[in-house]
Structure formats: C-alpha cells, structure tokens
Write a structure and sequence with these properties.
It is built from 1 helix and 9 strands. It has a 6-stranded antiparallel beta barrel. The protein is 10% helix and 53% strand. With 129 residues, the chain is mainly beta.
C-alpha cells in the first residue's frame, strides 16, 4: 500500500508542472518594436500591438495587430484628405537580435473610383526589448 501511495503522489506531482520550462509561445499587448516602411504608394510608422509570438533559436516570430500612422498623399480630385492618418493593420514581424523585418497588411476602404482591398507592404524596425 505504501509503494502504491508513493507512486500515486509522484504521478500526481508530475501533472503540477512544478519545474516547468519557459514557454516559447507567448501572448502580449506590446513588444516594444517600432517600424517604418512602404505600402500602397505611401509610408507607415507603427508599433506592434496585441500579438502572439513564438521564440525559436534567438529569432522571434510575431503575428498580430499593428497600430500605425500612414503617410500618403491623397491624389483624388475635389476635397483632399489628410496626408497622415491613423490606421490599424495586421501582419507578421520577424525579430533577429534587435532588428525587425515586418510584412504588414492594411485594408483600403471602398471609394467611388476603386473597390476595397488589402494591400501588403514591407518594413524595417528596431526592438527596444
């Protein structure tokens, strides 16, 4: 009975994860990355927002939201919009050491002359963490 009880306690303690290793998959609100880049004939400046990240051999892969400032001249006839507008994108960011490479996707809304569409860009940034 004593051996059975010891085996049961050891088995139960293995499910408690008392000595669990650090998780490689992480969810965060802000990762301290600022990037600038090009998308759809304009520029953007953004930081990483809510995301899911995966760390693999010193390289961090981040999939998440990108709160941004888009800088694009309005070339439509008539009333012009502001050149700098806030925008929310989504995309993939890869961080190696402190350098970040970003592939953002932004949605351009439907206008009188074009349909709404997702536009892909490219950006380079820096990780402060």
């Amino acid at each position: 009975m004593k051996k059975l009880m010891c085996a049961g306690i050891i088995l139960l303690s293995s499910f408690c994860f008392a000595q669990e290793t650090a998780s490689k998959l992480k969810v965060s609100f802000f990762d301290g990355i600022v990037a600038a880049g090009y998308v759809d004939h304009g520029a953007f400046i953004n930081c990483t927002g809510p995301n899911v990240s995966l760390m693999h051999k010193g390289t961090k892969f981040i999939l998440g939201m990108l709160p941004s400032l888009r800088i694009k001249e309005d070339r439509s006839p008539g009333t012009k919009n502001n050149a700098i507008t806030p925008n929310l994108g989504a995309g993939l960011t890869v961080v190696y050491r402190k350098i970040a490479l970003q592939v953002p996707l932004y949605y351009n809304t439907k206008t009188a002359i074009q349909n709404g569409a997702w536009k892909m860009g490219i950006g380079l940034g820096y990780s402060f963490k």
